[in-house]
Write a structure and sequence with these properties.
By secondary structure, this protein is mainly beta. The protein has one domain: Jelly Rolls (Sandwich). Helix content is about 15%, strand content about 40%. The protein has four helices and 13 strands. It has a six-stranded antiparallel beta sheet with strand order 1-2-10-7-12-5, with no helix packed on it. The protein has a five-stranded antiparallel beta sheet with strand order 9-8-11-6-13, with no helix packed on it. It has a two-stranded antiparallel ribbon with strand order 3-4. The longest helix is centred in the last third of the chain and has 10 residues. The protein is globular and about 50 Å long.
C-alpha cells in the first residue's frame, strides 16, 4: 500500500495494490495487520454506504463528543472529499485539505478523529463507503458550514449550485465551531493513529 501524506498531519491518502487482468481486478481495502504495520492501529465499529447523484454535497460533519475516525472510498463514480482540522491544539487548526476519490483511482482517504468531513459528488450514482471508529450518535453530530469563508474550501462546483440537505444548509460558522473544539477534550486530544 502506498501512503501519501497531506498538508494536515494524520490525514492520509492510501493507494492499495491493485491486481487486475482481462477478468477484472482485486484489491484489499482493509486489512488490520497491514494497516497496523503502517502505524494505523484502527478499530472500526461501523460501516456506512451512501449513494448520491452528481452535485450532492454532504458535510461538513463531525461528532463532538465521541469523534469518529473514517476510512473512506468510492466504489462507483467520483467525489471531491474534504476535511477541516478541528483539533484546537493542532498547528493546522482550521485548515482544510481535499482529494478526488473515484472508482477509477481506487484511493482510500484516512480521516482521523477531530476533523470535519464532507464530500461533493462529481458523477451520478456515486457510491461512497466509509468505516468509522465510533458509532454514529445523532445527539453528538454537528455540521460546519460547507462554504464558510474563514475556512475557504475550494469545492470544484464549476458554476453549479450544490444539492444540500436541510441540516447542511444550516451549517455552523467556523467561529462557532471553534467553541465546540475549545470545550471538548475529546476533539483536543484526537491525534492520528
Amino acid at each position: 500500500m502506498n501512503i501519501i501524506e497531506t498538508s494536515l498531519p494524520g490525514v492520509l491518502i492510501l493507494e492499495p495494490k491493485v491486481f487486475g487482468d482481462e477478468r477484472g481486478f482485486f484489491l484489499e481495502s482493509w486489512n488490520a495487520d497491514v494497516f497496523a504495520r503502517l502505524g494505523l492501529n484502527l478499530n472500526f465499529v461501523q460501516d456506512n454506504h451512501s449513494r448520491s447523484q452528481k452535485g450532492v454535497l454532504r458535510g461538513m460533519h463531525f461528532q463532538n463528543p465521541a469523534p469518529q475516525g473514517k476510512l473512506v472510498r468510492v466504489v462507483r463514480g467520483a467525489v471531491f472529499d474534504a476535511v477541516v482540522d478541528l483539533r484546537r491544539s493542532s498547528p493546522t487548526f482550521g485548515q482544510w485539505t481535499g482529494v478526488t476519490l473515484s472508482a477509477e483511482n481506487k484511493r482510500l482517504f484516512w480521516v482521523p478523529e477531530g476533523f470535519a468531513h464532507g464530500f461533493l459528488t462529481l458523477e451520478d450514482d456515486t457510491d461512497f463507503l466509509y468505516k468509522c471508529t465510533s458509532a454514529y450518535l445523532p445527539t453528538n453530530e454537528h455540521s460546519l458550514a460547507w462554504d464558510d469563508p474563514t475556512v475557504g474550501i475550494e469545492w470544484p462546483l464549476d458554476g453549479i449550485e450544490p444539492k444540500l440537505s436541510a441540516k447542511d444548509r444550516q451549517g455552523t460558522p467556523f467561529a462557532d465551531v471553534a467553541a465546540f473544539a475549545d470545550s471538548a477534550t475529546s476533539a483536543d486530544s484526537a491525534t492520528s493513529a
